[in-house]
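In this supplementary section we document a worked example of the pipeline. Step one takes a protein sequence of length 331 as its only input; no multiple sequence alignment statistics are reported here. Step two produces a three-dimensional model, which step three serialises into structure tokens for compact storage. The input and output of this example are shown verbatim.
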Amino acid sequence: MPKVSIIVPCYNEQPTIRLLLTAIHQQTFPLDEMEVIIADGMSTDQTRQEINEFQEQYPDLRIRIVDNPQRIIPAALNRALEAAAGEVIVRLDAHSMPDKMYVTHSVAGLEAGLGDNVGGVWDIQPGKKGWAAESIAAAAAHPLGVGGALYRYATVASEVDTVPFGAFRRSLLDQIGMFDETLLTNEDYEFNTRIRQNGGKIWLNPQIRSVYFARETYGKLARQYFRYGYWKWRMLKRYPVTLRWRQALPPAFVLSLFALVVLSLFWRPAGILLGLEFLGYGLILVFGTGSLALKRKKVYYLVSVPLAIAVMHFCWGAGFLTSIFHTPSKS
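The serialised model returned by step three reads:
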């Protein structure tokens, strides 16, 4: 049985860190074969105190905190990897709660040779109570909102482009290197791209499940997706062949709206086209998410879920376009 190191990037995660540690402690994989390495970005809340109190309460789970003064996720992952001793690395997030079979299924997938990086599906839950948080979680798990991101809704195991988090053998790092610290987001996708370019496989198994807490407000959702779009372009500049058509749609849509707004100042038909484009887009979102509102018997979903998806699309596209025009060419 391989030794497993669970690595976790962390910064000011006081509300959720104990949920994660409890879920790890409840794993079916033997605790004496696991360690948890938490790379903390010098948290200013009570995160470290929560971790230390948990360790005192459950000394049978080995937990170690390492500093991440850079306060970015890829740096946190690398600092944790430097401290990890396991043959198998399982990457988790401080906003997540892995199912009790998470590590067992992950290790089994690696030992069966199904993939070089093996991951699972998110069960996306609201970050807090309230209609906005519930609607954002629903949007973040809907195909209209996330396109081909199968790890948000897949039910069948398959080879994929990427998985969230993932489990891999430490020896893989000798082939492809560690996480890219020049990317503030998209570090998992970039890591998986290097695996695939080196002849490896990424395997998604829906039996590997974890709860993931979505952003709780539209403002936080907007900032998250703007950042995703911005750094996606940075990654695509290095790996242009990884571009998928679904990723080109949001920036193309935002660009078309901007062009029509400008044209409408001088050409009246452009204003009509702009209105039709907004109308058509709104109808697609409403009808595309209507069944969800009926299924969950929440009428406000007819507005709140399309709004969340629109925020995701617009902000991702705007971030992508901003990065094109403002990213230094040497990056």
